[in-house]
Known about the structure:
Shape: elongated
Strand order of the largest sheet: 1-3-4-5-6-2
Helix content: 40-55%
CATH architecture of the largest domain: Roll
Amino acid sequence: MNPTVLLVLLLAAVVTWTVETASRDRLTKRLDVMRLNTRALGRVQAEHDRLLRIQPFVGEIDSLRRDRAEAVSLRREIANRAGRKGSPHDQALAAVGREVLPAAVWIPTALMKDMGRSTPHATLQTALWAATTGSVAALKELLALEPEARIRAEEVIASLPMAARLQHGRPELLIAETLIRTPPAGEIQILSEQLRGFDDAIEFLALRDQNGGLPRILCLRLHWEPGGWRLIVPRLAVENAARVVKGETALAGLDPYRDAPRLPELD
């Protein structure tokens, strides 16, 4: 056989073998990837099935919310009954530390404790405790800004010098630091509470200084979310905070929650 022809055939065989080997390697890699994807898909499907099994139905969620509302109502009734016993001083001491505070009892804010956020009144006590002790970190975790208030707070922070921007950081921190600068009233009294559904509450409070004087009325809105109740901060509170951080005098007698949304009257 002609040597040239033999060489050509040999080269053709080598090229064919090389191509087939590369193709086989690519197919092997693709098969490995497909196997990995199949295993991952299986794990995702198994996790999806597990989550479906443990996910509560809508009826179960409504039932849990009703149970929580009924528990709060029972605690409130127990607190109100306990609050009517003994002298005003004894009533105030008995009220401290309850998840639901009794109505029409003057309670010193200095006695407030960190009660978490399990009920609206627990959040109120924790907020007053944080304000009294100067715990900015604890207070900012209790706040939730309305959308317009958050936008305004971000504008205020952006307008500050760099050092102040780094100091205040998040809108919640800005509001908390401002509230800390205003010492809370000496005593607080729950006037009434208005609930709507399972997730919104309006607390009507009376505040007065320890040295007496006429009490002032304060209206606070709270909202429940996973983790507990938070105080809703309206835009007007942000406007007052903007004056404070810029070194201006806070508006005298301003109720920062004056324009907080009110819940409609319940039947």
